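Colleagues,

For the teaching module next term, I've prepared a clean inverse folding example: a structure given as tokens, and then the sequence designed for it. I'd like students to try predicting residues themselves before seeing the answer, so please don't circulate the second half yet.
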């Protein structure tokens, strides 16, 4: 009889690796800006675990993660080795010809290109195109990413005509698949790439047109937190450099360099190349060089556009991502549960139903964080129907929406406050007119100046924030868009009002209240000044581009985000206001610096001078007067409505 030691037990069966949890941990590493030091060891440990467990699907996902990560850190040999291992695994798993195969080929080709192996890269890109023809649909955005990345290889080989053809193919796919082309970051990136190649081919008018479209999308879409924003900004900076916009190039290269440093560190090709380009742009700006006089050997390489990962256990996922925000969670919940529900239960109506997340709540502004998730949060989205469709299927659709899973990605869908229930609910099924009437009191945008003035900016912000995930019919987007088109006369009338309040509260009443020793009244005056300046920044930038100033607690978050966008008005105002509030605390209540009052009044005057200069640059005034009450008549001259002009 064979003896067995007391501690010996049958081996436990292999357990699949929880890839979602692994990727969530990777998200946390990047969110803590520890990617340069912790991401690679973390992924290697997870990969080793997947190998021990014999989980090939997890191995493939993690290998593709490592390919992208190594490439971003300029560990090109490691990236090539990981991509070859991933391709061998694809074949052994019998996945040849699938979307996972196509995406792995794209990742491998891009790694080869970055490693300076153009022939190997071309071979893999050709194989990827063949696989994509079978695995991807004609409007699949991964196919656009493939064409975009292939254009880089063509540019590096000096085949600029073919690079242009690849980019046009990518643009055609993106425009056909985009829910909102005017806010689509991939379209903006492709426009930047098209501008670079067009400029190289001497097609300067086309290049300028692509630059303008790309810039408009960045201004409109709020893409600063996109994981590929650094590459896109650097590409846009290069275009500005080539067309002689050196100051803009310097600003954007600095922004790109800061993101690269934060996410990837300084020991990589991205940092070195971007730092060199920044130095050249700074030199050109300082010298006042003429357009087109930059280094002649400067490569016109487009910005990479990564392939979107397919779903499933063998998915290849993008390397860099941020943790789920409320909008991310809502979009994923819609894609995984909402869209399939419509396709299965409402096939005759799915082409008429809009989906997204718009309205009240920090998640709609993109400002949600761990602190803001203590109430009325969780996976959820809105479904918007026309009045006719809502009458026919609204109740049934709401019942089906309510039956969707209550928990998604570990987050419960459980409202906790009364305003999230009943008529005040934020997600679910809505008739379009009812939805907007609930937020604004109007079923569609006002038609008279008086009605527009009755709507405060926070209400308009709630009506136009968030994101539309799908709107094949276009009815919802038409109403939403109408609220962004504030009439010009109304806008200038509000600008005039804000100038009056800045002058009255900041330039006139702050010193008068301090003279009286009434610190509380002076503090309230500073508050009025702050609100008026914040509103002015959004109004001058324009609602169709910047949206509207949101609910008061998000004023500074919104200003900080807007100040980072190219083309925004008064980008330094947020820093001025922060300093004004800091100085006001000491000047109004003390004890503090003995010269706090003088510095406070000086900072207010400096801000007002900047505002006056902005009015001049925008053609709203011909006066350099810094007492802003006197600027109002110049702005009023641009108003045609007699009633508004008289306000």
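(Answer key — instructors only)
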């Amino acid at each position: 009889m064979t003896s067995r030691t007391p501690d010996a037990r049958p081996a436990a069966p292999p357990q699949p690796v929880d890839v979602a949890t692994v990727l969530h941990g990777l998200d946390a590493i990047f969110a803590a800006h520890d990617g340069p030091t912790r991401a690679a060891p973390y992924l290697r440990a997870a990969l080793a675990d997947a190998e021990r467990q014999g989980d090939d699907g997890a191995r493939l996902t993690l290998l593709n993660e490592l390919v992208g990560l190594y490439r971003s850190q300029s560990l090109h040999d490691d990236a090539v080795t990981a991509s070859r291992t991933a391709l061998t695994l694809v074949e052994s798993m019998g996945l040849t010809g699938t979307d996972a195969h196509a995406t792995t080929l794209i990742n491998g080709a891009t790694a080869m290109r970055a490693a300076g192996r153009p022939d190997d890269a071309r071979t893999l890109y050709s194989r990827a195109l063949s696989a994509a023809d079978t695995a991807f649909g004609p409007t699949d955005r991964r196919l656009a990413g493939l064409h975009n990345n292939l254009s880089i290889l063509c540019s590096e080989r000096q085949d600029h005509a073919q690079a242009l053809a690849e980019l046009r193919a990518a643009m055609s796919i993106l425009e056909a698949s985009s829910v909102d082309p005017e806010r689509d970051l991939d379209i903006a990136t492709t426009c930047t790439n098209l501008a670079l190649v067009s400029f190289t081919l001497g097609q300067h008018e086309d290049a300028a047109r692509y630059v303008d479209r790309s810039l408009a999308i960045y201004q409109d879409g709020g893409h600063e937190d996109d994981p590929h924003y650094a590459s896109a900004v650097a590409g846009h900076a290069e275009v500005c450099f080539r067309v002689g916009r050196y100051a803009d190039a310097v600003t954007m290269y600095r922004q790109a360099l800061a993101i690269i440093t934060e996410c990837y560190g300084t020991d990589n090709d991205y940092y070195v190349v971007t730092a060199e380009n920044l130095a050249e742009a700074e030199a050109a700006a300082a010298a006042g060089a003429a357009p087109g006089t930059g280094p002649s050997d400067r490569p016109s390489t487009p910005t990479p556009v990564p392939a979107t990962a397919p779903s499933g256990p063998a998915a290849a996922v993008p390397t860099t991502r941020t943790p789920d925000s409320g909008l991310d969670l809502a979009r994923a919940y819609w894609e995984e549960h909402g869209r399939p529900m419509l396709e299965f239960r409402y096939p005759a109506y799915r082409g008429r139903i809009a989906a997204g997340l718009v309205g009240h709540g920090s998640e709609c502004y993109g400002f949600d964080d761990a602190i803001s998730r203590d109430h009325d949060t969780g996976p959820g989205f809105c479904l918007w129907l026309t009045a006719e469709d809502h009458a026919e299927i609204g109740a049934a659709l709401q019942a089906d929406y309510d039956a969707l899973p209550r928990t998604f990605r570990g987050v419960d869908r459980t409202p906790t406050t009364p305003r999230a229930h009943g008529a005040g609910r934020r997600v679910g099924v809505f008739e379009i007119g009812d939805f907007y009437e609930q937020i604004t009191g109007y079923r569609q945008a006002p038609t008279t100046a008086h009605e527009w003035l009755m709507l405060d900016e926070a209400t308009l912000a709630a009506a136009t924030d968030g994101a539309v995930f799908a709107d094949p019919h276009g009815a919802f987007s038409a109403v939403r868009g109408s609220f962004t088109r504030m009439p010009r006369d109304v806008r200038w009338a509000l600008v005039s009002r804000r100038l009056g309040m800045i002058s009255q509260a900041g330039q006139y009443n702050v010193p008068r209240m301090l003279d009286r020793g009434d610190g509380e009244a002076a503090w309230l005056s500073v508050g009025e000044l702050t609100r008026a300046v914040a509103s002015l920044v959004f109004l001058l930038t324009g609602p169709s581009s910047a949206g509207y100033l949101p609910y008061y607690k998000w004023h500074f978050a919104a200003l900080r985000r807007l100040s980072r966008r190219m083309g925004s008005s008064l980008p330094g105002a947020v820093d001025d206001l922060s300093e004004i509030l800091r100085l006001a605390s000491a000047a109004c209540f003390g004890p503090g610096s003995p010269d706090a009052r003088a510095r406070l009044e000086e900072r207010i005057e400096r801000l007002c001078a900047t505002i006056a200069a902005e009015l001049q640059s925008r053609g709203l005034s011909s006066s350099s007067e810094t007492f802003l009450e006197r600027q109002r008549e110049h702005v009023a001259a641009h108003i045609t409505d007699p009633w508004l002009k008289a306000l």
